[in-house]
Amino acid sequence: MKRLCLAALLGIWVSPLAAKTCTLDVVPAATLLLPYFEVDLANPGGKTTLVAIANASDQAVLTHVVLWTDLGVPTFSFDLYLTGYDVQTLNLRDLFSGSLPQTADQLRDPNDRISPRGSLSQEASFPGCDALLPPPVPPAAFVDALGRAHRGLASALAGGLCAAQAFSDPIARGYLTIDAVRRCSLLTPADPGYFGPDGVAANDNVLWGDFTYVDPATNFAQGENLVRIESDPALFAGRDTFYGRYVGFAGTDGREPLPTAWGARYLAGGDFLGATDLVVWRDSRQRTAPFACGTHPSWYPIPWEFDRTTFFDEQETADRPFCPFECPVFASPFPAESTRVRANTATFPVPFTFGWIDLDMKTTLPLGAGARPLSQAWVGVLTSANGRFSVGSEGGQLDSGCAPRTTNP
Asked: pTM of the entire structure?
C-alpha cells in the first residue's frame, strides 16, 4: 500500500513487465524448454539435472511435461498441476527411477493434502485427469525401458529399436518441454489433437522456471532460466513456430520460434582450465521416429556449415574460414537436437584462448524430404575452473526466429 501511495504522489505509474514476442525475454510463457539434460543412471550420487516449474498467476494451471531423447523422439509424458503462484521442483533422476511428482487438482484433492493452496492462490479442476492426477507409479519394466531409450540402447518404448545417440556410458540424455494445457492426456506435441482450438495445449503465458546441472564428482553446479516460449495464436498463424514440424508449419501451435544466430563467450586458459561447454538445442525440422540400432535418423547429423561461424578474440581479431569455391562439410559439433560439447577440443576447435563465437545455425544443406532450411536454435554457455567455481549463462541472441538475419560478420 505504501508503495502504491508513494507512486501516486510522485505521479509514477507502476506497470507490469511487458512481453515482446519473437524475443526470448525473461517473462512468463506458455511453453518452457529445458534444452539438454544429463542423468547418471549408474551412480545415485552422480550427475543429474534439477528443474523448477513455476506459475506466475494466482489462477491454477495444468502443465504437460514431455521427455524427448537427444534425437527428438518423445518417450514419456505426464501432467503436473500447479495452484496459483505454485512451484514444483523435479530431480530428473527421480523420473528415471520411476518417482513422479505427486500433484492433483481440486476435484482429485479436495482436502489439499497433495497440492495445498496458498493464501493468495486459486485452485481449479481439469477434465480428463482421472487416473492421471496424481500420476501413477510406472512399472519397473517401463522405467528400465525409459533409461535404455535415453542411452541409445534398444528399448521396448521404441518397439525394440533405438531413439538416441549411443555413447556407451550410463548417462541418460535428452531435453524436456513443459506446456500449459487445457486437460490431462497422454499425448505429446508430436501427436494429432495436441494443438488447435480444441486441442490439449493452452495458450496461457503464465509459466516460468529454471534448471541446474549438478556434478558432485567435480564440485560443479551451473544453472540458467528455462527457455520461455510465448504463445500468440493470432500472430503466428501460418508462420514458422517452435513446434512447426508437428503442425505442418501452419503455426497452429502459436508458439514463437527461437532465434537462428547466437553469440557465445568461451574461456579456455588461465584459471579456466575446466574449459567452456556449449549447450545447444537445434531443430531438425522433421519428426523423428525410432530407428534401427547402429543407424541414425535420415537427417542425422544436423549439418554444420563452418564457414557460417566467426571467432573473435578479446582484441576483436576475427577468424573465419575462407573457401575460394565451396566450403567442405566437416563433422558437426552439434549433430543432434540436444547437445553438450566442449570448446577447444577436436570436436569443436577454437583459434583463440579467450573470445566469443558468432554461431549461425541456419543451413542451406538438404535435410531430407519435406524439410525446410534449418533455423531455430538455443545456445547456453557453461564455464568452469578446476573444481573452484562454475557458472552458466544463456548465449546472446543475434537475431530473431521471426526475422532471421541474412548476413554474417
From this structure: 0.92
